[in-house]
Amino acid sequence: MARDRNPVNHVTELHAQEGDRLTTAQGAGVDDTDHSLTAGPRGPVLLEDHHLREKITHFDHERIPERVVHARGTGAHGVFRAYGNAASVTKAAFLATTDEETEVFVRFSTVLGSRGSADTVRDVRGFATKFHTREGTFDLVGNNFPVFFIQDAVKFPDIIHAGKPEPDREIPQAQTAHDTFWDFIGSHTESTHMAMWAMSDRGIPRSYRTMEGFGVHTFRMEAADGTTSLVKFHWKPALGIHSQVWEEAQITQGADPDFHRRDLYDAIAAGAFPQWELGLQIMPDTVDETFEGIDLLDPTKIVPEEICPVQAVGLLTLTEAPENFFAETEQVAFHVDHVVPGIQVTNDPLMQGRLFSYLDTQLTRLGGPNFAQLPVNRPRAAVNDMFRDGMHQQAVHSGVVAYKPNQIDDDLPRTSPDGDDAFVTIPTPVSGEKGRHHPVSFTDHFSQARLFWLSLTPVEQAHEVEAFTFELGKCLRQEVKEGVLASLARVDTDLVARVAAGLGLPVPDGEVPDGVVASPALSQIPAEPGRVDGRVVGVLVAEGGDLSPVADLRTAYADEHVVVRVISAHGGEVSGASGETETVERTLLTTRSVEYDAVVVAPGVIGSAVAAEPRTAVLLLEAFRHGKPVVALGDGVGLLTSVGVDTSAPDVLACDSVRDCVQPLRDALGMHRSWERLAMLAG
Ligand code: HDD
């Protein structure tokens, strides 16, 4: 007879903080946690003090190894709801049906820096999503770029060793601006396309909320009727794609190293829940696995949206910050091979290597094979895996049978050979000679790098040139710079000439690919103003000045959850001319322009202590230089002029009242930056 089974007791809750008294780990009450047990008031500490030894021992073992890559990150809980239109390509219920909401956990990260490194470094960003579906866990372990540096996973340790701090002195931290990284890029022409993305504004996002995400590899999807398609995943942010400018990113590293983390939590707290649409590029599943001449197994290639549009299939909304960073964000474990029926992997050699690496790395990082039992990782689908024991086993398995086939338990648990509710590998044919191959279709390393360059607007191209010049300018070895210039010469003659000029090096010759067509979808400058939810507007106010703009702006942008922050010369309260008061949230000492998407000068600041403080000029000039809307209300325009802000420049708004500036400011914020001003400043 089969017994009532609860083989993996995933529902047992571990109550970490029960009751209101302090106890030992064994639950005995503690009389005093501030003084060790000693022989006499000034005598030696006694070995007998169990509480002291247990407290320190546990503390000594609090850290786990940080992730070997993507160590610095932050996460949030949320929900995913499909639109239902993906049913034509996949039978995965969480994508195919509209009637269920799937719980998700998303972790964003940088790649190279250590756990304590700054958020706003120039780097790729991880965008990993765990979908707790009722058919099992699906992990979409992607990045904010749609391509990767290498085509074969065997080279992953090489690129990471080259990018991480150089091993002799362990510098520089969390950045690619050093010899070993660019030595790798110069000697691997396949990396050129990804390097173009990394040196673009995409490498320095304004917020995790304003990044796109990509599954990078091509996946194979299977519909309920058995038809298959080749598919690429995209995340499209509701707020559009918005980046910092380089000087701003550098200042932020010092002013607020937790900038992206704070931004995510603050937006959620303000009710501006971050959202992304999940999109699919759906391509026919052909024998050669190519589309319009693009090898879909090559992870250094995109499929331009103009030739295969992204179809929106669902909405992700992040609604809740984790309650405990370690338990959730640090212990979450993603794996590319966590797929559900309806979604399968392909022969992309980079993807195949990843299938090995993720489980392997968790064994070290999370200390054994039972990490799926940690609350953040626990599947919401019923688990009956017949795995037993191991380090950190939480489940109390019952019964005697942990093998198949068996007679004692009626041969339970059952397998599903017909695939009704099981993951069954699609029988794709494989042939060819065993060997270490270099596929011919993987050898074009420059046409898509050129495509990317040609798709940028002039101001974005100027940022790209500046980034290459900065990074190579930090390299010490001449041959490293020359190696990269040789690759850039095969991307675009203007690009290489401008970078070489900045480095003071000769321009190498190179053959540029012919007939490359731009993909306008790759530019991140919006055609028209987008949503401004959760944007941060700083308002400079002075003692005895007009404070009414603070409340007026809050009211005007309440529906968009725009955060209006009061900045003044001192902390505490500030009193206005009519006796009204506001709480000062930032002083000129504690703030920096990088905290704001726009800065407003209230009437009455000119001639005040705020105007006399030199940091006011720094704040306003930085906001101006970084292309942010700068607003002067009433006599505030005089302050702008006195600190040297060009009040005739684009998106410097002088208004008599808040009412006059609400819409122009919303429009300017919705464009992310004053692109016209940035172009003007770039000359
Ligand atoms: Fe990876 C972590 C994304 C290639 C090996 N990877 C990791 C994370 C993301 C990615 C977002 C962090 C997950 C988290 O937040 O916990 N990785 C990618 C993408 C790749 C990629 C988009 C290429 C398309 N990765 C890649 C290769 C290998 C790895 C080729 C190894 C062969 N990645 C790992 C890892 C990590 C990891 C060592 C470190 C921590 C972890 O897995 O859980 O296994």
Could you describe the largest sheet, including whether it forms a barrel? 10 strands, antiparallel
Number of beta-strand segments: 20
* Poorly predicted regions: 1-12
Query: How many separate helices?
Result: 19
Radius of gyration based on Cα positions: 28 Å
Which outline best applies?
globular
Secondary structure category: alpha+beta
Q: Which kinds of small molecule does this entry bind, naming each only once? A: CIS-heme D hydroxychlorin gamma-spirolactone
What is the overall pLDDT average? 95
Distance between the termini: 82 Å
Residue fraction in strands: 15-25%
Question: What is the helix content?
Answer: 25-40%
Description:
Its cofactor is heme. GO terms for molecular function: catalase activity. Residues 1-43 are annotated as: Disordered. With 683 residues, the protein is α+β, with helices and mostly antiparallel strands. The chain has 19 helices and 20 strands. Strands 1, 2, 3, 4, 5, 6, 7, 8, 11 and 12 form a ten-stranded antiparallel beta sheet that branches. Strands 17-14-13-18-19-20 form a six-stranded parallel beta sheet, sandwiched between helices. It is globular and about 90 Å long. The structure holds CIS-heme D hydroxychlorin gamma-spirolactone. The site of CIS-heme D hydroxychlorin gamma-spirolactone has 27 residues, from strand 2, strand 3, strand 4 and helix 9.
